[in-house]
Amino acid sequence: MSNATTSDRVNECAAGLLASGSLEMSPDRHRDAEAIAELLPSATRVYVNHLPRHGLQKSLEALVALRRSGLEPVPHIAARRVSSRAEVVDFLDQAVERAQVSKVLVIGGDDPRPLGCYADAAALLRDGVLAEHGVREVSLPGYPEGHPRIASAALEAALTEKLALAATQGLATTLVTQFSFAPARVVAFCADLARARPELPVYVGIAGPCTAATLLRFAQRCGVSASLRAMGAQGMDAVRLFMHTDPADQISAVAQHCLAHPGSNVVGAHLFSFGAAAATAEWMHRRITGAR
Question: The domain at 3-289 falls in which architecture?
Fold first, then answer.
């Protein structure tokens, strides 16, 4: 097979991963919904962040705007940032009624102390409140580079428990990975998942287009530490070169993995937008349509 043909296949696969993928937006950027809808396929999943010091209610306007624009709104629920079960019930009742929400992404949240009764995502799932109030699918986080404060064995045990809790309640599950600067780590993580949990659909997290300074700031905040340390050992020039603002290499690496492993359970890419959802959707649109 010629190099040109191989390149075409990789680009086509990458475009497919983006077309079936998702992105995130901030709750205060609800006006981006129409712009995103003009650029991406209808029913694209758009995850709305649950920010520190913000109640779940802050995301309602964005969720409604996304549904009105023909997109699929998926709120984050950070368990440690929830003040009470009543807050979750009130939020879900409104989100289901006003935005027809049926999917949520559940994370623990990195707050030092739980604000209410949920110490982690498993506690929220164990409560049963999600299934009782209209949720039909739960997205869970995956960490190709590990977690800065949780040991790998504990992460694996927590994922096993959360998948079992969801299954018991009849909730479908997907996995959304944290972004990484090391495509080899992401590919290895996805290969391990395909062997251990072939039935679990995976969305591979990719850092969207942004400045190197923004990318570095969010990487440090999100605990993307292993590849940062490796780059740091090579000096800041290497860091700046590697942390370019176009995520094309990342999505191409994932596409190559999918082509080489037809049994992969990677079903799409998830773009982290870092507050610039419309710009991220524009980049996705160009890759999907093949525009230059």
Answer: Alpha-Beta Barrel (3.20)
